[in-house]
Amino acid sequence: MFVNFRRIHKCQCLQLLTTGVLLCMLMVYWEELDHHVVSHVRSFTYRYMINSYDFLNSSFAINSNHHYRKGGSNRVFGGFVNYSYLINHPEKCKGENGKSSNDVFLLLFVKSSPENFERRQAIRDTWGNESFVWAELGVNMRLVFAIGTHPYVEQRYKVQTALLKEDKVYGDLIQQNFVDTFYNLTTKLILQFHWRHMYCPQARFVMSGDDDIFVHMPNLVKYLQDILRSQSGAKDLWVGHVHRGSPPVRYKYSKYHIPYDLYPWPSYPDYTAGAGYVVSGDVAAKIYQATLLLNSSMYIDDVFMGICAKAMGVSPQEHVYFSGEGKAPYHTCIYDHMITSHDHISDVRSLWRSATESRENSSTRGIIGNLYCTAVRVMLLCLPHYQNTYSCSAAFT
After folding, report:
1. Which pLDDT tens digit goes with each residue over 152-172?
2. Of the ranges 64-73, 93-102, 136-145, 338-347, which one carries the lowest mean pLDDT score?
């Protein structure tokens, strides 16, 4: 059938041409459109209308016939490899007499890459300083850095030699024999909870954070002490910046891309941003048990944490001053309540000085000062630019 174009009016030609262009653009950008719009609609529908994650128990459960087997220098428990330690400090949580110390208030794991020497040193000098936390805040904290081996073979020997020298000075590196890459972050998460189970089970709280976050340690300690003094006590606590109803990323060019054969469902269980979160000791024990029972093929570590927690009946709790993927605005009125902020590398020391000095002055502000700070936080936090750090509701906390 042939079309007589002479009979088609110019307006109709323009309509056909426009429709064709729109269809072509839709075909070209459909994957990105699906990533930003369609997948989120499906995910939120699943999360808030169906909200059933029973598939976790069957789809992620490990076959009991493969519960334990040897794997060369490493051992395989269930679905994950229990990598051998290259650097370890089993005595880290012990007292002076070599016996287990019962007063470990906070076990702080920092996920670090082997080459990030300067980041680790900045943390030791500021918010991760064990001596400061004991002398100024009156609690016992233990800091360890969780790392793997350098991903490039030609640089591995040089970096490993430097790591051994660093650890000889500071004694705070925990390293296993796996390649330290983005796709092994779940392995690093498992390292943390297994190390705590083996060597520091008495820790009341466990915090996991990246080496580019900032932690306002005085505010965090006060918050956790208030929880201990509360009626419920430190039980079933998993707190951070919560992602609810997040869809798997199907956009194949994203580093967070998850194929359907790995996770075919439209929505992840709720989870906290992996940049920084805190769990109580009982939750840490439950996550450890879950890693023995669940397949760890999910390489996005905070999502795997959510899967483990959901399987164990643990739900995350939102704290408005735990950062997501963004950096908090610089202001003394923010420091009053700040717990974590993300994306800090070169400014950790200066931010630490500003935050601790602000803490000393905040108690003298009075009613006018508090009203001023509320107004400042509204202007800063209710702007879209900072929505990925603290929500607008944080301004009124």
Report:
1. 999 999 999 999 999 999 999
2. 64-73
User: Is 115 a member of any domain?
Assistant: yes
Q: How does pLDDT run across 251-282, given as a tens digit for each residue?
A: 888 889 999 999 989 999 999 999 999 999 99
Q: Is 56 a domain residue?
A: no
Whether the CB-CB separation of 208 and 189 falls below 8 Å is answered with yes
Of 31, 7, 11, give the one whose Cα is nearest residue 19.
Answer: 11
Q: Are residues 214 and 359 part of one domain?
A: no
How much is the average pLDDT of 341-366? Answer: 85
As beta bridge partners, residue 210 has 111
Instruction: Decide which of 332 and 11 is more confident.
Output: 332
| Structural domains counted in the chain | 3
Query: pTM, whole model, 2 decimals?
Result: 0.85
Torsion angle of C-alpha atoms 48, 52, 56, 59, degrees rounded to 10: -110
CA dist., res. 196 & res. 198, Å (int): 6
pLDDT at residue 36 in the model: 59
| Same domain flag for 266 and 222 | yes
Q: Which residue has the higher pLDDT, 70 or 309?
A: 309
Last residue of a domain, one of 318, 347, 378: 318
The boundaries of the domain holding residue 154 are 64-318
In a domain, 257, yes or no: yes
| 273 shares a domain with 153 | yes
CATH number of the domain enclosing 141: 3.90.550
d(CA 137, CA 203): 17
